[in-house]
# Entry
Amino acid sequence: MKEKAVITAAITGSIHTPTMSPYLPITPKQIADEAVRAYEAGAGVVHIHARNPENGMPSPDLNLMEEIITDIKGRCPVVICITTGGGMGMTIEQRVAPVVKFRPELASCNAGSMNWGLFPMLTRFKEWKYDWEKFMLNMTEDFIFPNTFKTLREYCENFNKSETKPEFEIYDAGMVNNVAFLIQAGYIKTPVYIQFVLGILGGLSASPENLMFLVEHAKRHIGDFEFSVCVAGRAQFPICTQSLLLGGNCRVGLEDNLYLEKGQLAKSNAEQVAKMVRIARELGIEPADPEEARKILRLKGRDKIGY
# Structure
């Protein structure tokens, strides 16, 4: 195990909807406030999506993103990881635009195409605050999240120009092979940073066996990498704890899981971060502060960002 591990907080994401939790941050100020609180609780990195402040719908609006990240930057030194996953229906150009414009230290990069099913959540609620929520969830029964080899090549070109570190999101074993190909083709350099994402319908389920398999698979095919783990749903804390035991890092936050305990909604991202910090310290692992996270992940530093 490491002496220091990076804890990331994924603040709002694009999966959960306003009906699902009254604590899901929606407006730029709410998202920025939650990011700062997560930093104060021990997060070295925050992962940022933007939402329409009127109805909470995921938004590609660069002005909203700029408002969020400049607010966070002005209030704390946390590493800001910007999404390129975006939200349902966003074009590839919309998804990569924040990297081009803002040149962040870190940004997500989904490592392959997949079925992406959120539609089972439709059965959990009878009434919805906004019409788009039910529509978005329903459309995922016939939705493929596209991340082709052409897209990955173009993403890597933009990441290289911006000196932004890609955080490769890996949902299944084939995506490990995709990252290995990107290295062999010369599109990216090692060591790479990968994040195993478990528990999404269409990808690998969240189990200790699957995480062990992915780590060993990546060791064989990638070799030189730093890794983190995030988990959708109830297995978030157990599998994130396993990641720490395996020498990795972890991600918590309301993007991935709305609960703090069984039946108890998390009132903030900071509550989840604080819980993960307590678990880590019980294992003798300290949360990496932002400067330590920059060294672990080999980031370019705040002086080279574009916002």
